[in-house]
Design goal:
alpha+beta; six-stranded mixed beta sheet
Length: 120
């Protein structure tokens, strides 16, 4: 049986990630940056960023927008299924796996088919 604290942890973790995505969609990168650890790591199909500053330095030029389809949490792991738009490219289906630690996001792994981004 799951106790109430496990449910609260999952709900809080999921909400933190959704708040991050909302801030990114609103281009409020200062607020978004507050949700992640300094040593945050990003691993995606097109590259890797070590450190929150490196990750957030790239975001303004990417003009990203997440349309969340589903999100769920298991402990401090959060998965978000979304349609992702980068710049003026076609929307692509994306799966994002966030790992949290002590109330902040420690890492993000993203999977999607990059071909629409690479097409001219």
């Amino acid at each position: 049986m799951t106790n109430i604290s496990d449910i609260e942890i999952r709900r809080d973790a999921e909400q933190l990630v959704l708040d991050l995505l909302s801030a990114i969609n609103e281009k409020d990168f200062a607020t978004a940056r507050e949700f992640v650890w300094d040593n945050f790591t990003f691993e995606g199909v097109l590259g890797r960023r070590d450190g929150a500053d490196a990750y957030f330095a790239d975001l303004p030029g990417m003009n990203m927008n997440y349309s969340v389809l589903q999100s769920f949490a298991r402990g401090l792991d959060v998965c978000v299924l979304s349609n992702l738009r980068i710049g003026d490219k076609k929307e692509i289906f994306c799966c994002s796996w966030y790992k949290l630690r002590q109330g902040k996001i420690a890492s993000l792994r993203v999977l999607f088919d990059p071909r629409p981004l690479l097409a001219n």
